[in-house]
Structure formats: structure tokens, C-alpha cells
Design brief:
Subcellular location: Cell membrane
Strand content: under 5%
Keywords: Cell membrane, Membrane, Transmembrane, Transmembrane helix, Transport
Radius of gyration: 24 Å
Membrane topology: Multi-pass membrane protein
Structural class: mainly alpha
Organism: Lentilactobacillus raoultii
Shape: globular
Mean pLDDT: 88
Number of domains: 1
Distance between the termini: 64 Å
Order of helices and strands: HHHHHHHHHHHHHHHHHHHHHH
CATH architecture: Up-down Bundle
CATH topology: Amino acid/polyamine transporter I
CATH class: Mainly Alpha
Pfam family, one: BCCT
Length: 527
């Protein structure tokens, strides 16, 4: 059995079977699949929702402990290993791969949804101003430090074993190597790898489908053309297929780094433009407030579970989104590890958690701030749309741009941003998925990248054509549940190994010093 699971193509065929089962189920019985999976999620939330929110905060504490402890100077690689990307390209690639099109979909809607639906929102009877602040507070928690702690720790454990210990780039490798003295470690590691590959394929397919919907809406808003037909969807999918496949088969320093830099530049340009043409004083007040929310309120939010309130919002938004973040860890962890070669644990933790969080503070302040401005001082049509169209809240972002002057400029920029965000996150997923299903090499084989690009694009089209997107998203969320435990096991395995390596290095250094002392003593005797 052990020899069989170590074969090069075992993970590929296992992931094909895993992905195929859920994809066929989603197309044949989308309603039944969605109901079954959301029912499972409901059962989890009814019993363990208290566990989901504090967990990312715990990972945040662990990450900063590692960064500023004796382990912080450990480099992913040898002492002379150099980073493959510039710092700007590395941060841009980290950020755009980790967030993807999500900040466009929810950059306006998320705080407004919490304002409307949460137990600390407008429905609770508190003042609209306080409800709006609470909406921002929960958005900062969901998208800020805790989310990036999840991604960072997932990447760190894989990177440590791959570059410092010479192991494979596989999600289960930290479990197998970190607990090599336990009889269960290999079996759990294999399970983690199989589920990781299947989760990656289905989550990427869902991400592509959501991105296509957003591009179609952007094209219609900017140009007036309706390309939401099957023919239009196929054309868009083919264009995106060429972009993300080409970027994935190029060396990371060229393909992914270029997309990451482009994405960052376009996002910053759009954000600065909107900041300058709107109420900049209000936005800066929001920036100040959101810094407090992101850094000072993280513990209070993470350990608030509303035990005496209706759990509908708590389970469907904060809890579910946190689980969704964990469903991204199998492939995003590999990607973060792959692009962080040559950087220390301290660099990885501080840069990949703090920089994206500061960017998101600005992003939500600018765009959600304008959404709230429309609700409080405008005609309120954006918040009314969100309240009446819960399945299409992502359209609120472009509604904000259309309400502002200069849509002839911001509209095309928005369209470019959506396309590049979709391409960047999909490219990182293709690279990681191909690495996993090729048994963990450092660089993904090109033929495997092309194959997975074809397969996930086909799954995405079947989701679009049959309207089965909810089912595939449900798979992604459900798969995130076991990965909460896989990540904890991986961190424990890494910590065990770090302590062994640290003690061994100290012993080696002491032996070298003793040899030097003995050599000097012998020299004095001879003289």
C-alpha cells in the first residue's frame, strides 16, 4: 500500500476521481448536492461555530511568536539562498494570489451586509452610525490579520519542510515529516494531499465562474454589451484560459510576478482616483477607525460568538468565510512557500500579514466608505440593492463607481482589474494544483498545468451553464473544515521539527567551537 501511494501519479488520479465525483454530482443534481453540503455545514456550525472564529486569532499569535522568537531568522533555503523576486513583486504576488477577485466582489458589499444583518447592526436597534462602524469592524477581522495569518502559516509550514528540510511541496508533508515517529502520520498526510488536490480544483473552478460573472457585468456596465450568453461565456473562458495558462507555464519570476505587479498597480490607481474625487476627509477618518478595528479589535471580535442571539448571520458570514479561507490553504500555502524561497520566517510573517492588511484598510475605507456615504447622504439605492438582492451583492462595487464622476475612466480600469485579479489567483492555483498532483516538485510540469487548466475551465463552464455554482462553493466550504485541523497538525509538526533542528544546530555549533579551541590549544603546546 505504501509503495502504491508513493507512485508519481497516485495523487493525480486520486484527485481526478475526487474532483470528478463532486463535479458530476454538481451537474446531475445541483439542488440535492447543495442542500446536502449546506446541511453538513449547518451541523458543523450548530456544534463547533465557537471554534471557527478564535482559530485564526490563535494562528496570528503563533505566527508572530515564530517571527520574533529564536526561529525568526531561519531562512527558507540555505544560508546563501537568494529570493527569486524583488520585494515589490513578491508582496504584490502574495496579495493578489491570496485575495483574488474577492476584494472587488465584497469591497463595498461586506460592511454593508454586516450593517444590515449582524446582531450589532442596524436591526439590533443601535444607531446607524454605530452599526456602520461595526460593519467595518467585522470586515476588518474577516479580511485582515486573521485571514492572512491562515495563509501565512499554511505557506510557512510547507516552505520550512520543502526548502529547509528538502521535503516535497505537498500539504501533507509537514504532517508526515513532523510526526515521522507516529504510525498514523503517513495516512493522515496522504488524506490531506488527496483532499487538497480535489479542493484546489473545485475551488479554482468556482473562482473562475464567479470571475466570469463579474467580467460580464463589468463589460455590460462599461460598454452596454450583454455577453452573458453561453457563447459569450465560452469566449470569455477561452480568453481567460489563454491568460492564466500562459502565466502559469512561464517561470514564476516572469508570469506570476508580472501579473502580481500589474494587479497591484491597477488596484492602487483605481483606489487613489476614487479617493481624490470623493470625500477624502471622511475616508481618512475611516482609515483611522479601521486601523483600530484591524489591530486592536481583533481579539474582541475573534472571541465574540453571540451565544444568546440568532446565529443565522454569524454562521453564514463570519464563520463560513473563515472556513472558506481554510479551503484555500492547500494550494495557496504551496504557492506562498514557492515564491518565498530565500526569505526568513520573520520577513514572511511580517510582510505577508501586515502589508496586505494595511492595503485592505485603505481599500475598504475608500470603497465601502462611499457605499455608506450613499446610504447616509445619497439616494440609498446601493444599500437597498444589497438588502433586496443577497445573491448578487458583488454588483454593488460597480454601482459605487457608476455613482461617482468619471465612470468613463473608472469603468475600464475596473474591467482590467477584474480580469487581472481573476488571472492572478487562477494562475497561482494552477501552479499549486499541478505541483500537488505531480507529487510535490518545486516547479510544476508544464503539461500538468495545461491539463488542469483545461479541466478546471471545463468545470467552471458547466457551473455557469447549469447554474451549479452554489454546489461547488459548498464543496469548497465543506473541504475547509478538515483543513482547519490539517493546518493545526502541520504547525505542530513544524514546531516539533524546529526544536529538534535548533537543538541540533546548537550542538553542531558547540562541537565546532570545541574543535577550534582544541586546535588552538594544540598549537600553543607545539609552540
Amino acid at each position: 500500500m505504501k509503495t502504491f501511494i508513493q507512485r508519481k501519479n497516485f495523487l493525480f488520479w486520486a484527485s481526478i476521481i475526487f474532483t470528478g465525483i463532486f463535479s458530476i454530482w454538481a451537474v446531475v443534481s445541483p439542488t440535492g448536492m447543495t442542500a446536502a453540503l449546506w446541511s453538513l455545514l449547518g451541523q458543523y456550525n450548530s456544534t463547533f461555530s465557537w471554534f471557527t472564529m478564535p482559530l485564526p486569532v490563535i494562528l496570528l499569535v503563533i505566527s508572530f511568536y515564530l517571527a520574533f522568537s529564536k526561529f525568526g531568522k531561519i531562512k527558507l533555503g540555505q544560508a546563501d539562498t537568494k529570493p527569486e523576486m524583488s520585494t515589490f513583486a513578491w508582496i504584490g504576488t502574495l496579495f493578489t494570489a491570496g485575495i483574488g477577485i474577492g476584494i472587488v466582489n465584497f469591497g463595498v458589499a461586506e460592511p454593508l451586509v454586516h450593517y444590515l444583518q449582524s446582531p450589532v447592526g442596524i436591526s439590533s436597534g443601535i444607531s446607524p452610525a454605530q452599526a456602520a462602524e461595526n460593519g467595518m469592524k467585522y470586515s476588518m477581522f474577516i479580511w485582515g490579520l486573521p485571514a492572512w495569518a491562515i495563509y501565512t502559516m499554511a505557506g510557512l509550514v510547507i516552505g520550512y519542510f520543502a526548502y529547509y528540510k528538502g521535503k516535497k511541496f505537498l500539504p501533507g508533508e509537514p504532517i508526515a515529516a513532523g510526526f515521522s515517529d507516529k504510525h498514523w502520520a503517513v495516512s493522515v498526510a496522504v488524506l490531506a494531499n488527496i483532499v487538497a488536490a480535489g479542493a484546489a480544483a473545485l475551488t479554482i473552478a468556482a473562482h473562475i465562474a464567479i470571475g466570469i460573472f463579474q467580467i460580464q457585468n463589468a463589460v455590460k456596465s462599461v460598454s452596454g454589451f450583454n455577453i452573458s450568453s453561453d457563447t459569450g461565456s465560452i469566449a470569455l473562458l477561452l480568453i481567460m484560459f489563454v491568460i492564466y495558462t500562459l502565466a502559469a507555464i512561464l517561470p514564476i519570476q516572469k508570469g506570476m510576478a508580472t501579473l502580481g505587479k500589474l494587479n497591484t498597480i491597477v488596484a492602487v490607481i483605481l483606489m487613489i482616483y476614487v479617493f481624490l474625487i470623493t470625500n477624502s476627509t471622511l475616508i481618512m477618518r475611516l482609515v483611522t477607525l479601521n486601523i483600530r478595528h484591524a489591530f486592536l479589535d481583533v481579539f474582541s471580535v475573534g472571541f465574540t460568538t453571540f451565544p444568546f442571539s440568532d446565529q443565522s448571520w454569524f454562521n453564514s458570514w463570519p464563520n463560513t468565510i473563515m472556513i472558506w479561507w481554510f479551503s484555500w490553504t492547500p494550494f495557496l500555502g504551496i504557492f506562498i512557500a514557492r515564491i518565498s524561497k530565500g526569505r526568513t520566517i520573520r520577513q514572511i510573517v511580517t510582510m505577508s500579514i501586515l502589508v496586505p492588511t494595511f492595503f485592505l484598510i485603505l481599500w475598504f475605507s475608500v470603497f465601502a466608505g462611499n457605499g455608506f456615504w450613499n446610504a447616509f447622504f445619497g439616494d440609498g439605492k446601493i444599500i437597498h440593492f444589497i438588502a433586496n438582492n443577497p445573491e448578487n451583492v458583488y454588483l454593488s462595487f460597480i454601482m459605487v463607481l457608476k455613482e461617482l464622476p468619471g465612470f468613463a475612466i473608472t469603468g475600464p480600469i475596473f474591467l482590467i482589474l477584474v480580469i487581472v485579479f481573476l488571472a492572478t489567483a487562477t494562475t497561482s492555483g494552477m501552479i499549486s494544483l499541478s505541483i500537488i498532483t505531480s507529487n510535490g516538485p518545486e516547479n510544476a510540469p508544464r503539461n500538468r498545468i495545461v491539463l488542469w487548466s483545461v479541466l478546471t475551465t471545463m468545470i467552471a463552464f458547466s457551473n455557469i451553464a447549469t447554474g451549479t455554482l452554489d454546489g461547488v462553493k459548498a464543496v469548497g466550504v465543506i473541504i475547509g473544515i478538515p483543513f482547519m485541523f490539517f493546518v493545526l497538525l502541520s504547525i505542530s509538526g513544524m514546531y516539533r521539527q524546529m526544536n529538534l533542528d535548533y537543538s541540533k544546530n546548537l550542538l553542531t555549533a558547540a562541537e565546532k567551537n570545541q574543535k577550534l579551541i582544541d586546535k588552538l590549544a594544540d598549537g600553543k603546546k607545539e609552540s
